[in-house]
Design goal:
Elements: H1 7-12, H2 18-21, E1 22-25, E2 31-33, H3 43-48, H4 55-66, H5 74-80, H6 88-92, H7 97-100, H8 107-120, H9 127-139, E3 165-168, H10 170-176, H11 178-190, E4 196-197, H12 207-211, H13 215-231, E5 236-239, H14 242-250, H15 252-256, E6 262-265, H16 266-275, E7 288-291, H17 305-312, E8 318-320, H18 338-342, H19 344-359, E9 364-367, H20 370-382, E10 388-391, H21 392-398
Parallel strand pairs: 3-4, 3-5, 5-6, 7-8, 7-9, 9-10
Antiparallel strand pairs: 1-2
Helix pairs in contact: 10-11, 11-21, 16-17, 19-20
């Protein structure tokens, strides 16, 4: 069982309930109760209201499975997919933190291992996820759009398919948000960077399948993608999608071995170019905006400062923060497309709450994740909020002199 290696984590869970009703650790060992009145950090628990949806409850289930108190069942299999993987629980978890040298128990990764067991036993994933995976199999993207249209976003931008710096657009920017991919190229070129892309040779990164338990399929995609990037001569891979970045950065080495290239998110590279004086953001953008921390950039990968530095460097732009930000920011509700696909009512409810928080401080929200763009926009639309979601690269492109 893939879950077995996490047995110590389940046993180390202190059953303290921080993951249910604590928003942050306090000083001298005293917890800080949630000041926002939303019943703790877990967005799914807020909507479902049963303890087995908290990290504590999930760890008790893992413990019970591994100690043989009960076995996997269809109901338990479905429950495994209700975790959105946001890692907000890990941000407040104190279990064994000092000994481990890291923040708490990584519930999201444990639930991913449980899903792998579920798939291996033929109990999952849920039908909506199976249908989505079939689209990826058929066309290389979760939308089922033709493979031949993947590089349509690059028309009018003569991009070589070989080079040391390769841009990975990802499915969302390639098909749903072409303006994001175009803005990335525009910013890089303005900073004097020669950039290439794989064009139609780019495929799905495999992140969605990895997180719904189809590890074997994700490994196939990783092998294919690494081969294509190596043949393109990539020394550095720049990624605009938070989920693509996460799997390339954290999972590909385990799936296929050491990578022959470095992986960087657009916000990291843009911030580096800004520090080096190569990226000039001299055109005023007279807008008041807030920044949304995407889970797979922030809590999963510690990218907090770079986007804010970039936004603060734009003349005329006023950056304001939400009540919950950085490691304590609320998830958009996507959960690597898990909730939006399998449990759309829960995903939308979370998106609505996050949209409300963002609207409290600004009419424009900037983020570095296409799924957050979509979900926040859906959450705002569902309650007729005048809130616009924009990608970081698009805003930066507007500020180019």
């Amino acid at each position: 069982m893939a879950l077995e290696k996490y047995y110590p984590d389940a046993r180390n869970c202190m059953r303290c309930g921080y993951c249910r009703d604590i928003v942050a650790p306090g000083s001298m060992g005293s917890p800080i109760r949630d000041p926002f009145g939303i019943d703790g950090v877990c967005p799914v628990y807020h909507e479902k209201r049963f303890d087995h949806y908290t990290a504590r409850g999930r760890m008790q289930i893992v413990w019970g499975l591994l100690d043989g108190f009960f076995d996997y069942s269809p109901a338990l299999a479905e429950h495994a997919y209700t975790c959105c993987g946001c890692s907000a629980c890990t941000a407040v978890c104190w279990a064994d933190a000092e000994k481990r040298g890291e923040e708490g128990i990584k519930t999201a990764r444990i639930m991913r291992a449980m899903r792998q067991d579920v798939v291996d036993m033929g109990l999952g994933p849920p039908e909506p996820l199976k249908a989505r995976d079939a689209l990826i199999d058929a066309q290389g993207n979760p939308f089922g759009k033709p493979k031949a249209e993947r590089s349509n976003w690059a028309k009018g931008l003569p991009l070589p398919q070989k080079g040391e710096l390769v841009f990975w657009a990802g499915c969302y920017a390639a098909y749903e948000y072409p303006e994001v991919a175009q803005a990335v190229v525009k910013v890089l070129r303005a900073a004097g960077s020669d950039v290439a892309c794989l064009g139609d040779k780019e495929g799905c990164c495999g992140m969605l399948e990895l997180w719904d338990g189809n590890r074997a399929k994700a490994k196939e995609r990783a092998e294919s993608n690494v081969k294509a990037l190596a043949e393109a001569g990539a020394k550095r891979l720049v990624v605009s999608c938070a989920e693509c970045y996460d799997i390339f950065k954290n999972d590909y080495a385990e799936l296929v071995g050491a990578l022959p290239f470095d992986v960087v998110h657009t916000s990291q590279l843009f911030a580096q170019l800004l520090d080096e004086g190569k990226l000039k953001l001299g055109k005023p953008v007279n807008k008041k905006v807030t920044y949304h921390d995407a889970c797979y950039l922030s809590r999963h990968n510690g990218i907090y400062e770079e986007p804010r530095k970039l936004l603060s460097s734009i003349p005329g732009l006023e950056l304001v923060e939400t009540r919950r930000k950085e490691k304590y920011a609320l998830c958009c509700g996507s959960g690597a497309d898990m909730l939006t696909t399998a449990f759309p009512d829960v995903g939308l409810a979370i998106a609505k709450r996050r949209a409300e928080e963002l609207k409290e401080v600004a009419d424009i929200v900037v983020t570095g994740c296409p799924r957050c763009l979509r979900n926040i926009a859906e959450g705002a639309k569902a309650q007729s909020l005048d809130l616009t979601a924009r990608d970081l690269a698009v805003v930066l492109a507007e500020a180019l002199p």
